[in-house]
Structures
1.
Amino acid sequence: MSMKTDIKLIDDKGVRIDGRKPDQLRPIKIEAGVLKRADGSAYLEWGKNKVLAAVYGPREAHPRHLQDSAKAIVQCRYNMAPFSVGDRKRPGPDRRSVEISKIISEALESVILTELFPRSSIDVFIEVLQANAGTRCAGLTAASVALADAGIPMKDLVVGCAAGKVEGTVVLDLGKEEDNFGQADVPLAIIPRTGEIVLLQMDGDMTREELFNAIDMAKDASLRIYELQKEALRRRYAIVAEEEKEEIASMEEIKEEE
Ligand code: UDP
């Protein structure tokens, strides 16, 4: 953030370095139910970010001292693959991934009906396969779809989306160059239906007014991302319904043969 550079991040016409307008998202693709062994899963591509999310649970929390007799605990592990970034990343947890795991757990916990599952744990694994800025938002957005795919009861889905400031302009969803050389990056998590903010961080600085603009921009975008999440889940349920139909048809065939 705010390193000096000669690169022009926004041209005179307001076009960003990757060709986007200030309030334009990078392209997003979401697929639900991609892993057979997990209770729920999702794969998400967001610009050049590639992220997998897997959910297990609710299941008995271990070790037992972690159990809460009033509600389920939500444990998220965010991990970057060694090959996900330009320079090989040292495998294993570091301060950054511990922080991101914590803030994503808290954002997810705010929508999950944890009180329905006392003494349980809901475990969320986020694997970043390719990173290009905005992976915490991508991971959170994927995890939310994976939770729904696992059938975990939730108030709503939650969406992660960042906004920030680049060369004096408030912009949505910073790319890598903008993240490195821009003035501010503000990752947010939003409950789209209510507009409630369940995560707000800021790297760099901006005025109060710019911050409010950035939040509004991210809120608008969260509604667009929400539609993509729901479409991914609808496609997933359509496939499940189709598979069930085929299974019933083949069982009836067997019965007829008998
Ligand atoms: N990054 C990296 N190596 C690291 C951590 C991050 O190259 O060990 C890159 C990666 O592209 C990441 C970006 O820096 O997406 C921005 O990282 P930040 O900590 O701001 O989190 P993010 O924007 O991914 O949520």
2.
Amino acid sequence: MAKKQLITKVWIEEGCIVCDACETAAPEVFEVMDDTCVIRPDALNAEFTKPRSEGIVDAAEECPVDVIKFDSDTVEVADEAPTEPAAAPATETQTAPSPAKKAPAAEPKKAAPQKAPASVGKTKAPSAGEPDPSIQALLEAATSRGGNAGIMRNSTEVPTSAQGWRATDVDNLPPDARQAKVVEAAQKAKKQSALHRRDFVSNSAVAIGWTAFGVGTGISIGPAFGRFMMPNVLEEPDPRIRVGKITRYMEMAPGDVNEDYKPQGIWMIRDEDRIAALNIICTHLGCIPNWQPNDRKFKCPCHGSGYYSDGINFEGPTPRPLERFKITIKDGIVIVDKSKKYQYELGQWDQPGSYILV
Ligand code: FES
């Protein structure tokens, strides 16, 4: 009797490098996916793995990263050379294949043909010219359909087309068709997952784009919208300008012009008994005249209009005198209010506020 190792359980640990060696050695047991290898569903059954023990052992030995593990039973099987002493069945667990366990002469590859464990002890050694029952059992299990015999036996029941096995319940399918259906379902789920992921990425990109558009729009129009909602009345410059103590203007001689506040649009002038604040804008077309002290006049460079020191026009195209601003005094400080103007031609220069008596 020879000893035979029958795989009762096989699994794959982490570290698969997807080399395809296992699927090449035992395609009914192993399936190499994109990123790892898996045990096919049928191979989770001991009755399925036992007849495929040699392929599983080969796959484990050829695995370059040694991630294929299995449990096995060692049984005695009929041997053509009866000189080998029979040994009692023994059970062992092998978690890592090693050449030492395959080397002995009594190992499956070099032993006489064997049969599945269920028939161990009941199978007689075949006579010359007759098929060995253990070899027959292995041959029948050589394909997941039970070999050609199985195919022939079940030919009326096995769906012969893809449409056939797709329409048949998986429990009623032979292993190959069941495996094909499972693999197809897995591939379909994988494609759907990839589509969902792509849709998610696409939708995320659209969402990010709209978010960026919203943020950009908010940044660009936000300040303008804020100003629209909050009128900028406080940013207008105060029309009231403090132009200094009244004493400095009391010291001026009649006809003098103070240009210190020309940048603010004001000439401070001194008349006989009063001071006033002239608007520096030419009343012709809005240019700014220049004070010419030697000539004691304002002369507009644009069209030649001329004004006396009190603002009365006397030459050029301008139709009327310069305007005057409202002027007040508080605590000895003269304050000019540019929001209020007085026009000579309207008789407003005599109105209170158009001058300060000194
Ligand atoms: Fe001053 Fe025309 S704008 S003269």
